[in-house]
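Narrative summary of target 7.
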Amino acid sequence: MTSKTEQNIGYVLAGVLFIVGLLCYTVFAKNPPQEPLRIMFTSTGGKVFFDHKTHFSESGYAFECDMCHHMLEGEGEKPVSCGECHLEDGEDTPKRSDALHTQCIGCHEDSGSGPVDCSACHLR
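Modeled conformation, tokenized:
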């Protein structure tokens, strides 16, 4: 049997280890990336997974931001998401789904890479 003192030492040690772990988790947390790595679009046809890192990085397709975010004006300007301008109802600008279909499928067809079939992008 353990004595009361040994039991109290165990509780104190567990508390100290918990606090040290919590501090390490908060102090040494990684900063979020500047650009998104992956984006999940939701649509009536099913969710669409977009690997932003593969399209953007030098080891991938090395696209420039303005290839998709066509409204960039200044160097280093942070692009806005497609849904900021291309809304679901799309009265003044093309609907978001139409803009994405034109942009994505058009690029895939022009480059001869990437999916062009609905089921290849739209996940159920």
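The first helix runs from residue 4 to 27.
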